[in-house]
Amino acid sequence: MNILSQRSSSSRRRHRGRSPKSLLLLLVMAGILYWIEQQRPDPDAAARGRYEGTCLKVIDGDTIDVRADSGETFRIRLLGIDCMDTHEQEKINEQARRLDRTKSEVVRLGEKATSRVRALIERKPIAWEVPEGTPLFDPHDRLLAYVELVDGTDLGEWLLREGLAETRRDRHPRAARYRSAAAAALAW
Fold first, then answer.
1. Among 41, 167, 172, 186, which residue's Cα sits nearest to residue 109?
2. Quick one: which of 122, 124, 4, 116 has its CA closest to 61?
3. Between 103-121 and 89-99, two packed helices, what is the crossing angle to 10 degrees?
4. Are residues 126 and 58 in contact, defined by beta-carbon separation less than 8 angstroms?
5. Residues 48 and 133 sit within 8 Å (Cβ to Cβ)
6. Is there a contact between 78 and 155 (Cβ–Cβ < 8 Å)?
7. Could you tell me which residues come within 8 angstroms of residue 81 by beta carbon, excluding any fewer than 6 positions away?
8. What letter does residue 46 receive in the DSSP assignment?
9. Angle at CA 131, nearest 5°, toward 126 and 132?
10. Which stretches of the chain are assigned E, i.e. beta strand?
């Protein structure tokens, strides 16, 4: 084999699969996959909407366990509000520093919020709404939703008015309403 044929043979091996036809095929396949992905419905879209069920347990002022009328159970984190923490020391420390309060004051207010929520909704029928344009879950895999009492009272808005919660900076449809409902000060 002469040197010229060796060079063209090794050159062909190096460029195998890089012909214009191969690149075109790759681009077409990528385009088809992109188009298919765009046609696929949002899996979270099915979870958006309004549901009814029962509050099984109040974890803390802004977290509850519910059973939907369909039988499914969920842990819900109230959207748009934040109650003082009662368990997680790191968060209690952060809230105490930020609000210039003692850790025991923070825990006491968190317990007060938990107690009020428990009295209002535990073992009672409720409704919850998972709105469009918000994350479906928080970092702890809790469903983010607005919760309403049987009479239609928005639980988050109620907690804000009572000074048992503060507004969160998250973007959500009721943000302006929640800001205007918030008490001037927390109910220490």
1. 186
2. 116
3. 110
4. no
5. no
6. yes
7. 62, 156, 159, 160, 165, 166, 167, 168, 178
8. G
9. 165
10. 49-60, 63-68, 73-78, 81-82, 125-130, 143-148, 166-167
Inform me whether the pLDDT recorded for 6 exceeds 70. Answer: no
- Return the closest-CA partner of residue 76 out of 43, 51, 104: 51
96 CB-near residues (< 8 Å, 6+ apart):
102, 103, 105, 106
* Percent of the chain with pLDDT strictly greater than 90: 74
Q: How many residues are listed for the chain in this entry?
A: 188
pTM: 0.76
Query: What's the pLDDT tens digit per position in 48-100?
Result: 999 999 999 999 999 999 999 999 999 999 999 999 999 999 999 999 999 99
The pLDDT tens digits for 140-183 are 999 999 999 999 999 999 999 999 999 998 899 999 999 999 99
